[in-house]
Amino acid sequence: MPSTPVYCYRRSTAQSQQKGWTVNRKTVACAMREMRLVGLHPGPNMSKRDHAASTYPYLLRHTTVAYPNHIWGVDMTEVGGTLLTPTSRSISQNAIVIP
Q: According to the 3-state scheme, what is the secondary structure of 19-81?
């Protein structure tokens, strides 16, 4: 696995053709296979949920939004063990507030 990100053969072919090189996608794919270069892309089943993980109930099922700023949501994203900046959002106004 290379230490730097690599385009897949389609993107590499397009980049080469934009630079004016006459190259075929099959040639690029073959060269990438020989050099053992792999393009970055999501693996299989990335959008399927983990059944072993706990699920949480939806607490706003029977709640209606009565006035602005009544219901707020928070999205906290963790990538590689690092917590990215949490964002808050008013559900009624779709306004994003970054603390």
A: CCCCCCHHHHHHHHHHCCCCCCCCCCCCCCCCCCCCCCCCCCCCCCCCCCCCCEEEECCEECC
